[in-house]
Amino acid sequence: MSSGQDTTGETVRRRAVLASIAAGTAGTAGCLGRLRTARSQELPDPLSLEILTLPGDADPVATQIGRRLAENLEAAGIEVDLTLYPEDELRRAVLIEQEYDLFVCAHPNIESPDMLRPLLHSKFVREPGWQNPFEMTDINIDELLEAQQSQTGDQRRQTVAELQHEIVKNQPFIPIVVPDAIQAARTDRFSSWEPMTTDLARSLTQLEQVDPSADTLRLVSTNDRLTQNLNPIAIEYPDGRRIIDLLYDSLGRYDRGTVRPWAADSWDVSRTDGDTLITATLRSGLEFHDGTPLTAADVVFSIEFLTDTSLGEFEVAVPAPRFRGRTSIVETATAIDEQTVALRFPEASPQTAVRALTVPILPKQEWETASNPVDIAGVDISEAVTDALVRENLDPVGSGPLQFDSLVEDERLVLTRNDDHPSQQASAALPEPFAGGLSFDQVRLEVVRSDDAALGLLADGEADATLSTLSPSAVPRAGREPAVELSVERSPALYLVGCNTTRSPLGNPYFRRFVARLIDKDAVQNEVLDGFARPATTPLTGTSWVPSGLRWNDEDPEVPFFGNNGELDSDAARTYLQDAGFEFAESGELLEQ
């Protein structure tokens, strides 16, 4: 694995390249009119942009945000093509091919500054997945992302504040709202329900059996992808990763923001010459679900495989996107013996380094053969994607507290309890939130087509809880069901508008800020989500990292909406562009820059 360290010469060259790119994209708007006049050129064509998003039956919130943005762009004089793509096609266009102008979707939650590094650092440009799909290249953002990675305490907090100011100034993507996660459950068979949106392992281990005959936990979901893909490293971030993660162990697991030992019995953290070294000791007796022993060699293989799923066969490494931010900080992984592994991190604080302990441990015998290149739907990307990143993995072999039992695509997934797992052994001494194991023998997940169908199963006593998030429109009905309890918490999602910064005029941060000001985030919160959301001002909205100057206070402090109560002031929007040197045709259309 590469250490990721630049020599002084390489750093200087990278700064020069990024600075020239930034200068080329950001400094041209004000002089375009003068250049055209001097050269007696004809005026260019009207500007046209395409917005990609999901259809209403897949994600009504994304669809409505896309429609509102399209209407306001058109009111400002910009021709818009709003394209509704099926989820797989949208993710392919954006995350693999990066062929788009603007897109609207929900992104997996951004809970720490470390998650911003793979999302925005220029070193990840052109990698598939959520690795800088905006193709952002900004030297200030790069340096702040790198600095916070090795800092701690107040110094890191100040750097992260500066980082957020740079991000909102540049708007490579526009954070819109963080929706609430609305779930429902019955308490006649199981009690002590906790929200199941982020840490599903913790939630399930907290359940208490009320009915002694309730040996099956019955969950219901409107997400049929849970029965179509059980790959923990899928390139497209499968929505079912919470339940998939229960099939696979990791050295550590998050418990309310803190990484605690899981497959590891313990670990030691030390600092040497600026490097962080973590030495982890595995719990004794760990096995994969097929009976194969889990050893330190499997941990080393997993980290190396997630770093390059081609195992060195391609000229350029093909990392697993979902875990790119964690594996990219590991310089070396070494098996000291069968139970002990040592990890070295050259440019990461201990607080950042422990995140690498949460990657899944994969059995080498199952995944080594998945390093071959693949084509997707006739698109020749054989040097960018391996079979490991796109395989469905519908017969998974992990080592987690649940193991695969059976599957009927688009209908049902059944997982059984792994009684040999440390979480089921009193002697394993797992952290308190996970101690005591699972109070049921199996999980049966039923897939239905609508929230109404899910609530119907709950009301009839055919299901114990919803795994998927209910829409706000389902709340009144759920509230009328006497046997059903609702829970509402911050969801693991952020709705955003992504900008392709390599395309004109979206390469100009002034224009991206203009796009951001066409979206009334307050109206999205109240009219689209019935108040079950919070407007987002930075990618870290909802966390303690947001500085006071960037918090929502009746409006966005950096990119306030051009208008009031959802009504666009198109004159103000046009004036904003004219002041920046953008030109309009006599008929009112904004011209290409």
Automatic annotation (TrEMBL):
Its name, as the record gives it, is: ABC transporter substrate-binding protein
Q: Which PANTHER family match?
A: OLIGOPEPTIDE-BINDING PROTEIN APPA, PERIPLASMIC BINDING COMPONENT OF ABC TRANSPORTER
Is Signal one of the keywords? yes
Family statement:
Belongs to the bacterial solute-binding protein 5 family.
Ranges where the Solute-binding protein family domain occurs: 258-583
Signal peptide annotation:
none
InterPro entries per record:
SBP_5, SBP_5_dom
> Which Pfam families did the record assign?
SBP_bac_5
